[in-house]
């Protein structure tokens, strides 16, 4: 799968995409991530990507021309059967696991990262296939949403992580309801100090018993649903 990310701050992606699962997925050729500086598609000496809004208003908005040209050139360079253009927007559809699975079916995603007060509405109307939001809050720009989307989509691609790791996740389709059970690891007993007194935090004994039937019963009993948001 290919990701093309349009941003005016390409440097912010470097560290995250060169770490852990996403790094390994790129090394295995499962995914290819290209970061593009939107200013490369400007035609003035100042490389201007934004301007004041018609009708007045606070702040600056991204112009339609560089985004149009960038998307046009990217589509021309790498023709893929299933390509979707995503614009990150506060008024977009909420990103969730279902949407991530839908996006993972594409061969390619072009992600537009706004800044300032947003983008010319013609980008949403004529260029983007879909507007997406990652939550009901305001961010400085679309770079963090782009990283979130890439992360949740990449881990769904075959070979990115072990298939069995996907089966018991919070939003796994095999679960009757969305949720999780508590999980623990070593040490079986942890001895912290509180008010200068040694206390013990113990792992439930059933989990260290080796009795798989009892362990499964405990997991089922302690399964907690994720509340609707």
Structural write-up:
29% of the residues lie in helices and 21% in strands. The protein is α/β, with parallel strands linked by helices. It has 2 domains: 2-163, Alpha/beta knot; 172-225. Strands 2-1-6-5-7 form a 5-stranded parallel β-sheet, sandwiched between helices. A hairpin with a 2-residue loop joins β10 and β11. It is elongated, with a radius of gyration of 23 Å.
Largest sheet: 5 strands, parallel
Distance between the termini: 31 Å
CATH topology of the largest domain: Alpha/beta knot
CATH class of the largest domain: Alpha Beta
Strand order of the largest sheet: 2-1-6-5-7
Roughly what fraction of the amino acids lie in strands? 15-25%
Total tally of structural domains: 2
- The number of helices is 8
The chain-level structural class is alpha/beta
Gross morphology: elongated
CATH superfamily of the largest domain: SPOUT methyltransferase, trefoil knot domain
**Could you tell me the radius of gyration in angstroms?**
23 Å
Order of helix and strand elements from N to C terminus: EHHEEEHEHEHEHHEEEEEHE
- Please identify, by name, the CATH architecture of the largest domain: 3-Layer(aba) Sandwich
Helical content class: 25-40%
